[in-house]
Design goal:
The complex is a heterodimer. By secondary structure, chain A is mainly alpha-helical. Chain A has helices spanning about 1-25, 40-50, 50-55, 70-75, 75-80, 85, 105-115, 130, 135-140, 155-160, 160-170, 185, 205-210, 225, 250-255. Chain A has 15 helices and no strands. The chains are: A mainly alpha, B mainly beta.
Chain lengths: ~300, ~650
């Protein structure tokens, strides 16, 4: 396996050199902005919207080293020219673009995508589930709170995904509430071509990032394991142990019947030794590597 | 790790002299004490709330051109986390982190075995009385060290790299089937290395990305050996393996605000098992090896189009092929069995559309077709037809409503030939696994969002899922699930804030099966004590409610109250013919549990920077399941460790915390 470990070093270094040389090449700076009609400048906005202006100055958008219109046009980059708004004495939404709830989400996102359509990872925004369900950038990103634009994960996600919030609270769960896993650890909120918008080519490949012991390939395969982890597991949380969809033995019996114990009803009159779940013997349920024939039944 | 801590500690000292214009952050330091009425590993699952000092810090320094940040959470505790990040705006950013968590499964399990924690377990024969067994804890420590690096300039090309190493060490419960059945311990000593590289090109019209990854998994224990008296049995453990993946994707803007996205991916999983490490099992292969080799080829294409302001569509297709080139092995110990090399092909195609009936009404609909072919006798083919329709209305400023209907028709076929089924195998003519079975699924969902006042938000959703396996004789028959969720957040007079949520779930399943002895698989045979048809209905009620209230008491003094409660009530009813024997007994405790958490804390803000928090927290959890009634560690030739017993706890905690913001 030493050769395989060396690939860990050689392979990324090669690609790193190649990619960095491309990425550090000629700088194609944003072209000089056109002369804009009706722009009044951020200092005028500040006179009435001091809090919002301060949050802008503390944000990444304020950094002049980040080339783009936001560094020059400030508030009006997103909210549009403010002259008419000022002329009419201000007021919410009066001749100014706002990110209010009743504004078309496509229009709101379009403002952000003017610059961010080329941000890495945004190329799949259009086919993504969020855009198609009227989620706009400001649904998750609040630019006027603190200096950070990253959403509070998982709280922001839980606002819409109530079922996931409930699951994450259940007795058996991934450490989401404990802060060890974020929704964005597994999902690409900005769109993906992968099932469930997971951060891997397939949900199973995602699971293997932390559970590589289940990856195999093994000698004796358990077919549902090789097809979909979610055949047995509720990934966000479950009332049953080990994030299982159902209590054992019910879960196993939903697929298995054979002579003697697989088809036996384990009711409240069953003997004590019969109660203790299928995994007491079929421990290698994710697949066995034993040369013993018992591997076929996952007991070796 | 010590170096990382030193660097983190040096950051605030170095900041003033480093030219950073802004330094923001927060440092928290506190002390806490727990009083346990009942103690359990469940309380410590994924977290370390032990008595003593605790704290966290988060610092971010930035200038016009660069930033440097660091975070520390729970230093020196079992769930500690460190993060160091930095970068130059418009050029690159990087991060290095270290994270620990402990998967606490059970304290004070008992075992008759010596050698717990190693790969050789010794159990004397005869097994000594339970009073002579030794105790140990089931837990797995997970330590992850990782880094990420992104080069993203105003150049069309970008580059990302990430790498991590994850160590898992500990002991997991593991059932070992021998002439006795033992719940013993699997030693865990895993290391996983992951690297991922991505480079891409982007312009307003075209983007392209190439991604390559490599992952290597190493298990220090290749074989788990049980020596029971003079007998020796050997069990397999997770296999050393490695995986390559390459993928590429392209997007191209087209006329009519269309976007075409294409992706191709190749994942190659490889493993090696060395059978010479088994001393008691004759190897089936002359070269004593198994070479695992599984390849996945995936492809997908999506075309999205915005036809006009009213209509947008998405057309998509994806393909997965699993090819299994692993060694075929025929065992010669324990019977003659040959492993099956499982393969499949999946095709998925669909079309969905959103049509804006008006500015406030949006109608969506779609159709998806899935076809799967497997080299699996009991589920050779599956075809899914999925239809959905959804209406969303936002005609009221203070309310939005959504209604969705979904229908799935699944048709599956096995590869069994009824003429050739015999003996126990005859049951395959009647029994169908639930996840591949022919069925109809109906799903309905309705959701509302209310904002009647600026400072009041309410959400309410209900969904029903009903599965009807009407072509199944034995197996799951019906399955239904009701989910009702609600939440509210409001700001009351005197700046009091209230956040609350509640959820109720009800699931109910009906299942039919056959219990038989060899030769009795035919369900039409007259029932007797060992051969009979039976049915079962299981249902679960789950309820959760939680609230958090923020109350400003006086200037600079706030009070925060929180309370959460959840419970599960599970029941399983059985039925069989009277000719088969006495009625089967209902299980009234099936994963029943409740959990209560409550807390109160007062926060005194001495000034804009300093604050002091004093708090009390209470947590209680209890689980009841029939399988643990009258638990005994040994019964006949079954020897258990009691890992499922350590599940209830009740804890009172007091704490004091000082925070400094800058």
């Amino acid at each position: 396996m030493n050769k395989k470990k060396s690939i860990l070093l050689i392979f990324p270094l090669g690609l790193l050199l190649l990619s960095c040389s491309l990425a550090m090449g000629a700088d194609v700076s944003a072209s000089a902005p056109d002369v804009k009609m009706g722009f009044i400048g951020a200092k005028t906005c500040k006179e009435c919207h001091e809090k919002q202006y301060e949050s802008y100055t503390r944000s990444v958008h304020y950094k002049k080293s980040i080339k783009g219109p936001q560094a020059q046009d400030a508030c009006e980059t997103c909210h549009g020219p403010g002259a008419m708004h000022v002329e009419k004495g201000g007021g919410r939404g009066v001749d100014i673009f706002t990110f209010d709830k009743n504004v078309d989400p496509l229009e709101k996102s379009a403002k952000c995508l003017t610059c961010h359509d080329t941000t890495p990872g945004m190329d799949l925004w259009d086919p993504g589930v969020h855009k198609r369900n009227d989620v706009s950038c400001d649904s998750c990103h609040d630019l006027h709170v603190g200096g950070r634009q990253k959403p509070r994960d998982p709280e922001v996600c839980f606002d819409c995904h109530r079922d996931v919030k409930i699951d994450a609270n259940k007795r058996s769960h991934h450490p989401i509430l404990e802060g060890k896993i974020r929704c964005s650890s597994c999902h690409s909120p900005h769109g993906s071509l992968n099932k469930h918008m997971v951060e891997a080519d397939d949900p199973r490949e995602l699971c293997f990032k932390c559970h590589a012991d289940k990856r195999g390939p093994v000698v004796w395969e358990h077919a549902p394991v090789e097809e979909d982890c979610q055949s047995c597991h509720a990934v966000h949380g479950s009332s049953h142990a080990r994030l299982l969809l159902e209590r054992i033995p019910q879960l196993c019996q939903n697929c298995h019947d054979w002579s003697r114990h697989p088809g036996t009803p384990y009711d409240s009159t069953a003997s004590f030794t019969s109660r203790f779940e299928c995994l007491r013997c079929h421990s290698a349920i994710h697949g066995s590597n034993s040369p013993h024939a018992g591997g076929l039944r996952f007991v070796r | 790790m010590k170096r990382m801590i030193l660097v983190l500690l040096a950051l605030p000292i170095a900041a003033p002299s480093s030219g950073f214009a802004e330094v923001h952050g927060e440092i928290n330091a506190g002390i806490r004490a727990n009083d346990f009425d009942d103690e359990s590993a469940r309380f410590d699952e994924y977290r370390d709330r032990s008595d003593g000092l605790f704290g966290s810090a988060d610092i971010l320094m930035d200038s016009e051109t660069s930033f440097l940040g660091a975070s520390v959470e729970n230093p020196a505790l079992d769930d500690q986390y460190y993060n160091l990040r930095g970068g130059l705006f418009g050029l690159f950013k990087g991060e290095i982190f270290y994270d620990e968590l402990t998967h606490q499964l059970s304290y004070n399990a008992l075992t008759p075995a010596a050698g717990i924690g190693s790969d050789v377990l010794f159990v004397p024969d005869p097994v000594p009385p339970v009073s002579a067994w030794s105790d140990f804890d089931y837990n797995v420590e997970v330590k992850t060290l990782g880094a990420q690096f992104t080069v993203d300039t105003h150049n069309p090309f970008y580059f990302k790299a990430s790498a991590d190493q994850q160590r898992k060490e500990g002991i997991m419960p593991y059932g070992l089937y021998n002439s006795g059945t033992f719940k013993l311990a699997m030693p865990i000593d895993y290391t996983t290395y992951n690297t991922l590289l991505e480079t891409g090109y982007r312009s307003k019209e075209t983007t392209a990305a190439l991604i390559a990854g490599y992952s290597y998994f190493d298990n220090d224990f290749d074989v788990l050996t049980l020596r029971f008296g003079g007998e020796l049995e050997e069990y397999s453990t997770p296999i050393d393996n490695y995986s390559y993946n390459f993928s590429g994707r392209v997007t191209q803007r087209l006329p009519m605000e269309s976007l075409l996205a294409l992706k191709a991916a190749f994942n190659h999983h490889l493993s090696e098992a060395d059978f010479s490490k088994y001393v008691s099992i004759a190897s089936p292969e002359a070269d004593n090896e198994f070479d695992g080799d599984v390849r996945y080829i995936r492809g997908s294409a999506v075309l999205t189009s915005q036809w006009d302001k009213m209509l947008d569509t998405r057309l998509y297709y994806s393909y997965v092929n699993r090819e299994n080139e692993s060694d075929e092995i025929t065992s010669i110990t324990g019977g003659t069995r040959t492993n099956h090399l499982f393969e499949y092909d999946k095709h998925q195609a669909g079309l969905d559309a959103n049509y804006r009936l008006s500015k406030v009404n949006k109608l969506s609909g779609g159709y998806e077709f899935d076809a799967t072919d497997r080299t699996r006798e009991d589920a050779e083919q599956t075809f899914d037809n999925l239809l959905f329709a959804q209406l969303k209305n936002t005609s009221l400023d203070w309310m939005s409503a959504m209604f969705r209907l979904e229908y799935l028709n699944r048709w599956s076929d096995s590869d069994y030939s009824e003429e050739t089924l015999s003996g126990d195998g005859l049951i395959h003519e009647f029994f169908t696994p639930f996840d591949y079975a022919t069925k109809d699924r109906y799903r309905a969902k309705v959701a509302f969002e209310f904002n009647p006042l600026e400072r009041l938000g309410l959400g309410l959703s209900y969904s029903l899922v009903f599965d009807d396996y009407d072509a199944t004789q034995f197996g799951l028959q019906k399955d239904q699930r009701h989910e009702l969720y609600a939440d509210a957040n409001m700001q009351l007079p005197a700046k009091i804030k209230l956040d609350t949520y509640a959820g109720y779930e009800y699931t109910e399943s009906e299942f039919d099966s056959r219990r038989f002895n060899p030769g009795g698989a035919d369900p039409t045979l007259p029932p007797d004590a060992l051969n009979f048809n039976w049915s079962e209905e299981f249902d679960y009620d789950f309820f959760v409610i939680g609230s958090k209230v923020f109350i400003p008491i006086i200037a600079r003094l706030d009070l925060v109250l929180n309370a959460d409660y959840q419970f599960v009530d599970g029941n399983i009813d059985f039925a069989r013919s009277a000719a088969a024997g006495a009625p089967l007994g209902t299980i009234t405790e099936a994963d029943d549990y409740y959990k209560t958490t409550a807390g109160i804390k007062s926060i005194y803000k001495a000034d804009d920077q300093w604050s002091i928090t004093l708090g009390y927290a209470y947590e209680k959890s209890n689980l009841d399941d029939w399988r643990y009634d009258n638990f005994t560690y040994r019964s006949g030739s079954v020897y258990l460790s009691g890992d499922g017993l350590d599940r209830d706890y009740e804890v009172h905690q007091v704490y004091a915390l000082t925070s400094y913001r800058f």
